[in-house]
Amino acid sequence: MGSCTFCGKAAGFLRKSHKGCKERHEIGKRQIIAIARKAGLMGGDLKNAEDEIENVAKSSYIHTPMMNRLVASGWEAAVEQAFEDGILTLQEEQKLSEFQEHFSLSRKFLDTNGAYTKIVQGAVLREILEGNIPDRINVSGQLPFNLQKNEQLVWVFEDVNYYEEKTRTRYVGGSQGVSIRIAKGLYYRTGAFKGERVQTSETIHADTGLLGVTNKHLYFSGPLKKFRIKFDKIVTFEPFSDGIGIQRDAMTAKPQSFATNDGWFTYNLITNLAQI
Ligand SMILES: [Zn+2]
């Protein structure tokens, strides 16, 4: 006779748990995520939310490490939701960070699936959309970019794959129909980034390196290629699910693209900085 993995009582021949216990456990998991999600979005009485979560955990056979993971999942769902209707607002950012503090969730823990990074990116985009140059990144060590006077570094992408086209071909990009005008800029929701980079025999993976974004230029630095491009020399930006494509304003210029693994952030960041 095995004993139930949930309540510990006899479960019956060849059984690992009672059906009722398992059901209660699964419902409890969903309830904790829902409570955390709501508290992360709406704020309110966080102590009350915490008590509620602990009660559900106790009555649903959910141990503390699992409870903490579920609370983090609820917070991640709140982050997703905060970006649904547009860019993360300052108020949303504050509520999410109050929740993080109240439940003592570490940045590393919350960034398991990239949700913490998304908050930072959202704050950077919001500042740019309001017409300001963000100053939120701390770079450790020397960067290979020779910035000009009054030039401000806004973001650095690492391990970026840089591609060049041998001929001037047209990109097949994502839909542009899901932008929202916010403050001074144009914000593209995540749904805009379904366009894949069209890989042809003409597409050359030219290098892998750092992509720096300032208020004036794009900088690329890899073992083989090092260059900068002034924003006003770029005539078109193309959104890709994993990055951005650009076309420079010169007869001889070939399409170039940068795969950062995050088309949503890269495209919103660069197109809006280029407008300031
Ligand atoms: Zn049981």
Describe the structure.
The chain folds into 2 domains: about 1-115; about 155-275, Roll (PH-domain like), CATH 2.30.29. Helix 1 (about 20-40) crosses helix 4 (about 90-100) and helix 6 (about 115-130) runs parallel beside helix 7 (about 265-275). The chain is an alpha+beta fold and about 280 residues long. The protein has a 7-stranded antiparallel sheet with strand order 8-7-6-3-11-10-9, with helices on one face. It has a two-stranded antiparallel sheet with strand order 1-2. It has helices spanning about 20-40, 45-60, 65-85, 90-100, 105-110, 115-130, 265-275; strands at about 1-5, 10, 155-165, 180, 185-190, 205-215, 215-220, 225-230, 235-240, 245-250, 255-260. The N and C termini lie far apart (about 70 Å). The model has no long low-confidence stretch (mean pLDDT about 90). The longest helix has 24 residues, at about 20-40. The protein binds zinc ion.
Which properties best describe this structure?
seven-stranded antiparallel beta sheet; 276 residues; binds zinc ion; elongated; PH-domain like; two-stranded antiparallel sheet
Summarize the entry for a quick read.
With 276 residues, the chain is an alpha+beta fold.
Any chance you could write out the topology, listing elements then pairs?
Blueprint (H helix, E strand, L loop, with lengths): L1 E2 L6 E3 L6 H24 L3 H14 L4 H21 L5 H13 L4 H4 L4 H15 L23 E13 L13 E4 L2 E4 L14 E12 L2 E5 L4 E5 L3 E7 L2 E6 L7 E4 L3 H11 L3
Antiparallel strand pairs: 1-2, 3-6, 3-11, 4-5, 6-7, 7-8, 9-10, 10-11
The protein binds zinc ion.
Zinc ion (ZN) binds next to loops.
